[in-house]
Amino acid sequence: MKHARTLAATAMLAAALVSQAGAEEPMAVENTYKEIEAAFGVVPGFMKAYPKSAIAGMWEVTKNFEMSDKTALDPKTKALISVAVAAQIPCRYCIWLDTETAKQHGASEAEIAEAVTMAAMTRHWSTVINGMQIDFETFKSEFGGGS
Question: Residue 81, exposed/middle/buried by CB under 10 A (0-12, 13-18, 19+)?
Fold first, then answer.
C-alpha cells in the first residue's frame, strides 16, 4: 500500500510539473537546456526532441528524483532497478545508459547481473502464476498474507 501511495504521489507530481511546464516561456526552455548541458556536458538528442512545453517539468522530475541522492533510494539502487526494467521492456538505449550509470555509482558486474536476473525471475514466475490463473487470495494466504 505504501508503494502504491508513493507511485501515485510521484505520478501526480510528474503530471503537475508537466502541466506547469506547459506555460513555460522560451527563456525557461533555454535555461532548462543549460541545466541539462551542465549536468551531462550535452543536451541529449532525445531531450531536444521532447516537447518544449514539457521539458522543464520532466527535467525537474529527472534531476530531483532519478538523479538525486536525497531520496529514499540511492542513485545506484535506482540505476540497478532501471537496468532490470529496461531489460524487460526491452530498451537497448536504457539498458546501455542505466548500466553505465549504475557502474558510475559503484555497481559491480555481479550486482548488475543480479538485478537483471531478478527481473527475469519475476517475469518467469509472473508468467507461470498468471498463465495458470492461480487464485490470488489463496496465493496471499500461502505466504501469510490476509485479504
Answer: middle
